[in-house]
Specification:
Elements (H helix, E strand, L loop, with lengths): L1 H20 L16 H33 L5 H25 L4 H14 L6 H11 L4 E15 L6 H4 L1 E16 L6 E16 L3 E5 L5 E5 L4 E20 L4 E4 L2 E3 L6 E21 L2 E5 L8 E11 L2 E8 L13 E10 L1
Antiparallel strand pairs: 1-2, 1-13, 2-3, 3-6, 4-5, 6-9, 7-8, 9-10, 9-11, 11-12, 12-13
Helix pairs in contact: 1-4, 2-3, 2-4
Length: 345
C-alpha cells in the first residue's frame, strides 16, 4: 500500500510539472507565467511533510522493535521471518495513517489545471467562468506577414510591346494584417492592415523603359547589351475585407465555447487601395549603369480585389488591379493580375 501512495505522489508532482510547462491552446499567456499554483504547492508540500513525519516515527518504532527481537538471539531463519512480519505490520500502520490524512489528489490536479489555464487560483465556478470569458475573447490582433507574387499584365491588345519584351514581373510585399473576429464563436471577421509593396517589371531583349520629350514612356533598345533592366515601383497598400474560418468550436469548460479564428482553414475576400511611394528605373549593362527615380507614368494609385485561401500561417492568393498599371494611355489597358503566397507569424 505504501508503494501506491508513493506512486500517487509522483503522479501528482508529474502532473503539476506537465501543466506548468504546457502552453495554453490559444497562447493566452506567456510561457513563463505557467507555474505551479501556490495553493497546490502549499498543500502538496504540507502533505509531503506529514508523510515524511509519519514514516520517520513508524520507522523509529520499528527499529526499536527489531532491536528487541535481535536481542533474543534467534536463529537466522526465525529472525528473518519475524523481521518480515514486523516490517509488514509497520507498513500497514503507515498506510493507515497516510490514508487518514485525507489528501484529495483529484481536487489538487483540478486546481493546477485551472491555474495553468488562467494563471490564477479560482475559488468559485462563477469566478472561473468570468476568467474563461475574459481569456477566450474574440480575436483582435495585428500580425506581420510577407508575400511574393507573380504579376501577369492583362490587356486586350493583340500586339503589346511591353508584353513581348517582359522577362518576368513580380510583387514583393510585407506589412501587418489586422484580424477582428465578430464574436468569440463567430467564424466571420474583418481583415485590414497596412502593407508595403514593390512591383518590379524586368525587361528582356536588351530593351529598357525610356521617356520621350512629351513625358510618355516607351521601350527603347540598347545595342551593346544589358544585364539588368528593371522598372520598380513601391506602394503603400491598405486592404479591407472579410474572412471566414471553417474550424469547429472548442470547449474551454463551464459552457464557454470559442473558435480559434487565426488557425485552421480560412477563406477571405477584400478590396485594396494603395498610393505610390516612388518609381525606380534600373539599367545595367555594357558601358551603362543607370538609376533614375523620376516619373515613368506608373499609376500613382492602385485599387483592386483579392481572394485568399489560408491554412494556419500559410496563404495563397490572387489579386487583380481594376486600374491600369500605367497612366495617360502608356502601354494601354495593362492591368496587374497577381498570383502569390504569403506567410504570417
Amino acid at each position: 500500500m505504501i508503494k501506491k501512495f508513493i506512486m500517487m505522489g509522483f503522479v501528482c508532482l508529474l502532473s503539476v510539472s506537465v501543466y506548468a510547462q504546457k502552453k495554453p491552446v490559444l497562447n493566452l499567456q506567456p510561457k513563463e507565467d505557467n507555474e505551479v499554483s501556490p495553493i497546490v504547492k502549499e498543500k502538496v508540500d504540507d502533505y509531503a511533510r506529514k508523510i515524511d513525519a509519519i514514516i520517520r516515527e513508524e520507522k523509529k518504532m520499528m527499529e526499536a522493535e527489531l532491536l528487541e527481537l535481535q536481542a533474543k538471539n534467534q536463529d537466522k531463519a526465525d529472525f528473518d521471518k519475524q523481521k518480515a512480519l514486523v516490517a509488514e505490520k509497520y507498513s500497514e500502520k503507515i498506510d493507515q495513517r497516510i490514508e487518514a490524512l485525507g489528501f484529495d489528489m483529484d481536487a489538487m490536479i483540478q486546481k493546477q489545471v485551472r491555474f495553468s489555464l488562467l494563471n490564477s487560483d479560482i475559488t468559485s465556478n462563477e469566478e472561473l467562468k468570468q476568467k474563461l470569458l475574459k481569456k477566450f475573447r474574440p480575436t483582435k490582433d495585428l500580425s506581420p506577414y510577407i508575400s511574393y507574387g507573380i504579376i501577369n499584365l492583362t490587356n486586350d491588345k493583340p500586339d503589346n510591346a511591353l508584353d513581348n519584351n517582359l522577362r518576368y514581373a513580380g510583387n514583393f510585399e510585407f506589412g501587418f494584417k489586422f484580424n477582428y473576429q465578430f464574436g468569440r464563436t463567430s467564424p466571420w471577421g474583418l481583415i485590414s492592415g497596412i502593407g508595403f509593396s514593390w512591383r518590379t517589371l524586368s525587361i528582356d531583349n536588351n530593351m529598357f523603359v525610356a521617356k520621350g520629350t512629351d513625358s510618355n514612356v516607351y521601350l527603347a533598345n540598347y545595342d551593346k547589351g544589358l544585364s539588368k533592366s528593371k522598372l520598380r515601383t513601391g506602394y503603400i497598400i491598405v486592404p479591407l475585407g472579410l474572412q471566414y474560418n471553417f474550424s469547429r468550436l472548442k470547449n474551454a469548460g463551464m459552457d464557454v465555447q470559442y473558435l480559434d479564428y487565426s488557425e485552421g482553414f480560412r477563406i477571405g475576400a477584400n478590396i485594396y487601395g494603395g498610393v505610390k511611394m516612388s518609381t525606380n528605373n534600373i539599367i545595367k549593362g555594357d558601358g551603362i549603369s543607370y538609376r533614375d527615380r523620376s516619373d515613368y507614368q506608373v499609376s500613382p494609385f492602385i485599387y483592386g480585389g483579392q481572394f485568399t485561401v489560408s491554412y494556419n500561417d500559410f496563404s495563397i492568393f490572387v489579386k487583380k488591379d481594376f486600374g491600369n498599371f500605367f497612366r495617360n494611355g502608356n502601354f494601354e489597358n495593362d492591368k496587374a493580375l497577381v498570383f502569390g503566397v504569403a506567410l504570417w507569424w
